[in-house]
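Subject: design request, 343 residues
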């Protein structure tokens, strides 16, 4: 049975534009909060395949999206490579002992990192076994640059001072770290696909931290390497890339991926002009439009007007927010599916 989401990612004609939402398995769903409470904490939920499977399936069953995305976190990769990771209330993820020198880098284990993520692979197998045959399953990872930033800064940052200092004062060290993370991610995504992921997505959440030349040297080149590895080994599995906030760099985007995720700050018209002939576009409705059904209608209509008769996957331009009413999320999905029928 064909999957509309996969057909769209491959540029095939579909009966309507498939739609899903980043962070769709999350806090806006009361059902998610129940499972999260049972798990005890966020990381325990990530490491429990049965519970992670359950919350991955919730948006498919409750909201009606066209694809499930495995429930996990991008930071489980540096965790399993050997770093201590804590999720601190009010602060978010924290690495108490960031990477600061070659000695720290040498302690990180590529093979062990990929092997220790077996709970993610088990989650994918469980989801695939329970997911309807016509629904796609998305695996994912963080981009090497985004992961390396967390590993050096130790937590979220507004200035990126530590990691950006390194790219200009010790680029050799940065490249050594990025190469090691990239090698781990190759094994990680390959294992996700072997476990049942139909498509994989690479999130470069902190792409906008870098000026153009630095971005392509320290981030995009590693994304391209990762994409090339997956494409050469799993040519039938589409790849989505989502570099957030690089609308000024679109002219130089290249690589063997299939879908380019457009964030909400990048005009969809611009993305279509620069990349629409090379890639399927995904996105890019402003997530806060989901607070209002009128705003949903306006946002959907605008994107349909731009992308009509073009290759497209509907999504938000970033993750759904925790206090969005479930009714509005359902309305968004149904509105897209109904309004894009037979376009």
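Subject: RE: design request

Done. Sequence follows.
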């Amino acid at each position: 049975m064909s999957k509309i989401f996969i057909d769209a990612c491959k540029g095939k004609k579909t009966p309507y534009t498939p739609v899903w939402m980043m962070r769709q398995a999350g806090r806006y769903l009361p059902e998610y909060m129940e499972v999260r409470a049972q798990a005890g904490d966020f990381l325990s939920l990530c490491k429990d395949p049965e519970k992670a499977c359950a919350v991955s399936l919730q948006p498919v069953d409750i909201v009606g999206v066209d694809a499930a995305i495995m429930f996990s976190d991008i930071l489980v990769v540096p965790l399993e490579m050997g770093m201590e990771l804590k999720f601190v209330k009010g602060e978010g993820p924290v690495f108490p002992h960031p990477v600061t020198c070659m000695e720290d880098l040498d302690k990180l284990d590529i093979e062990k990192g990929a092997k220790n993520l077996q709970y993610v692979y088990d989650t994918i197998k469980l989801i695939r076994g329970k997911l309807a045959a016509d629904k796609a399953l998305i695996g994912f990872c963080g981009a090497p640059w985004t992961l390396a930033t967390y590993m050096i800064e130790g937590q979220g940052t507004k200035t990126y001072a530590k990691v950006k200092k390194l790219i200009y004062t010790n680029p050799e060290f940065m490249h050594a770290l990025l190469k090691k993370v990239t090698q781990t991610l190759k094994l990680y995504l390959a294992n996700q696909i072997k476990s049942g992921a139909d498509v994989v997505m690479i999130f470069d959440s902190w792409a906008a931290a870098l000026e153009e030349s630095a971005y392509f040297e320290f981030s995009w080149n590693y994304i391209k390497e990762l994409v090339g590895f997956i494409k050469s080994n799993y040519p039938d599995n589409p790849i989505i890339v989502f570099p957030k906030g690089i609308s000024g760099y679109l002219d130089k985007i290249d690589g063997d991926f299939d879908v380019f995720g457009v964030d909400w700050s990048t005009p969809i018209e611009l993305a279509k002009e620069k990349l629409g002939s090379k890639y399927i576009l995904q996105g890019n409705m402003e997530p806060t439009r989901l607070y209002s059904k009128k705003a949903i209608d306006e946002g959907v209509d605008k994107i349909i007007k731009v992308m009509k008769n073009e290759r497209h996957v509907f999504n938000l331009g970033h993750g759904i927010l925790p206090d969005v009413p479930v009714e509005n999320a359902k309305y968004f999905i149904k509105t897209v599916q109904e309004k894009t029928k037979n376009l």
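Residues 4-339 form a domain with the TIM Barrel fold (CATH 3.20.20.210).
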